[in-house]
Amino acid sequence: MQKKKIKIICLIGQIGNGGSERQLYLFLKYLDRKRYSPLVIVSSKSGGSRWERQIREELDIRVRFLGDLPKAAKFAKFAWAVFKNRTNVVFSWSFYTNALCMSCPGTRFIGSLRGDLLIEKEQISSSNFRYSLKPRHFVVNTKILADELKLEGVPEENISVIYNIFKAEEDYCEVRRTEDCRRIRDEYKIPQESVVVAGIGRSLPEKDFSFFISVFHEAALLDSRLFGLLIGDIGEEIKREIRDKNLENRFVLTGEVESAQKLLPAADIFFLSSRNEGLPNALIEAIDSGCAPLATDVGGVREVAEPYGQEIIERTLISGREVPDAADKLLFLAGNPGFRKGISSRRLKTLEKFSPDTVMSGYYQILEKSE
């Protein structure tokens, strides 16, 4: 007799085009559909995003929206959806939607924390923050976030560290990377002989592209080969800083692109200048693309870099936000192509812990544990 499928609701605050939504898509893509029957419920209203479309159309999974409702009405609507769906497990993908565990006390509920808890605390009301700590089980994507939950009184045995899913491109060889590099540099008129330093993201305070520009500027005074590549929607303030430092001829700003990772083979070094991070998907993508990483030691950055070993970590992670120290590390990477090549050769080993099979095994353990 065929075993009855476990009905799971994946609950997320919004479904835009960000990294958290991408991780939800990947979780659903690799979920065993013979064992689990998923439904996605979004706490807000539809934004018509890429990930919403792919979840609906590619994965053939229903997506429902609670909409802009008062808190009590939203809780009631969600409780009804859980009951009507005959749900076995609710998996809250956003920290602030953890609070909806209060509306379905009889249903197994797994909460999440995927970004800095202090920032989450600043962005929601004190009551919602307290309720968001109520789920019995939690999934976090870094050990640092697990420690933050423990400080808030969540028992260690109720927290599972499960890293983000990333499928490394195993057949991405040096020859192919060199060809892609040349093609992309030609397309964007980047000098082929440059040492290209890339960054990804929008001009948000936590990404701190001002630090990126300051470090690049100091290093570029000593190495004329350095060339900057900023991928994404870069704001006017950062553009002004580039002009003020007379770096217009040393930078390409791509604007919004469909896939930032497709441009990363043009870079030799990926510089993550963030003030805070969860588990930085952009850093993982850069490593897969063959870039040498240079990153501020925040959030889960060290956990990504752990497989490299201490020598590489000391050369590539930036403790504190001192521009001269970061510039020295950038100059070292720029001036040592052999060291960069050694980092790139460890690409697949470094990314093993993010493979779909490894990560989904962790998810299944927590889902089974919750039953």
Written overview of the protein:
By secondary structure, this protein is an alpha/beta fold. The chain is built from 16 helices and 13 strands. Strands 3-2-1-4-5-6-7 form a 7-stranded parallel sheet, with helices on both faces. The chain has a 6-stranded parallel sheet with strand order 10-9-8-11-12-13, with helices on both faces. The two termini are 20 Å apart.
Summarize the structure.
With 371 residues, this protein is an alpha/beta fold.
Tags for this entry?
alpha/beta, six-stranded parallel sheet, seven-stranded parallel sheet, 371 residues, Rossmann fold, 2 domains, 16 helices
The CATH superfamily of the largest domain is identified as Glycogen Phosphorylase B
Q: Tell me, what's the shape? A: elongated
Structural class: alpha/beta
Report the portion of residues in β strands: 15-25%
Number of strands: 13
CATH topology of the largest domain: Rossmann fold
Rg of Cα set: 22 Å
Sequence of strands across the biggest β-sheet:
3-2-1-4-5-6-7
Sheet with the most strands, sense and barrel status: 7 strands, parallel
